[in-house]
# Entry
Amino acid sequence: MQITFLGTSSGVPTRSRNVSSLAVRLPQRSEVWLFDCGEGTQHQILSSDIKISQISRIFITHLHGDHIFGLMGLLASCGLAGNASRIDIYGPAGLNDYLAACSRYSQTHFSYPIKVHQSRPGVVYEDDEFIVKCGRLEHRVTAYGYRVEEKDRPGRFNVEKAAALGIPSGPLYGQLKRGETVTLSDGRQISGQELCGPTEPGRKMAYCTDTIFCEGAVQLAQDVDVLIHEATFSHQDAQLAIDRLHSTSTMAAQVALAAGVKHLIMTHFSPRYAPGNDIQLEDLRQEAQAIFPNTEMAYDFWTYEVERHRSTELESVGTRSDRP
# Structure
């Protein structure tokens, strides 16, 4: 599970940060899931190693422009990029009407199927490998956070032990790998649990923006490997955060601490903290780390890989003047 940040600014883009979007790559199935799609997202994708043709699902947190203004253009480009399969889009009520109006007034017709699902608290998507849940956040409009859980996998199958027991290779191995009990031709019953190592826990991430500190974010982020949480304002500008229902760096850290997450990555920074100003992004990092030490700050084109039991960072594409 690889997370690439395509936009980490709030409200408006800056020279080094575009508005909100991130891509979750699932290499084992050649899919990309997109979370939010601010203006210019497809240009960011073209500057990354994300393939537009692999986008299969898009999750929208809320209908503010800096999170959706790039969606219609991206969907139009997906058809030209040869995306033959459908794209499923998840978001608040009104998202389908927005896309229908954009399509109608721009005379845009998609060459592939698009399905819009209205997000509601609970499970919004599930397959054999993943489950995606959403929960209400607290913002000026209806806003949702999303939690992606990879399902646990059986431990390593001990081929040597299976061979020593005289189990023939083939379909039986598949059943045993899944932990099932099989009956051999000689009548012996073998449990797959006896031949598999410890269960490998699935990886988990949560994405919470836009929101002020709320219990909904804490619940959504419980025990995840990585929490991606907005930190629009510095703690010194807490009143602005309260007035606009956004989070400060310390609020993001408090969510991470309360939820028991392993790693916090802050994003959605106000452009007011540009280099040379009285308060800079490094101040936000220090504020958060005073509460939750394992905190990083996202920047555009940074790729973060979530591994089982631990997390590692991959080198980003290009450099940025405000890179942490």
About this structure: Confidence is low (pLDDT under 50) at residues 310-322.
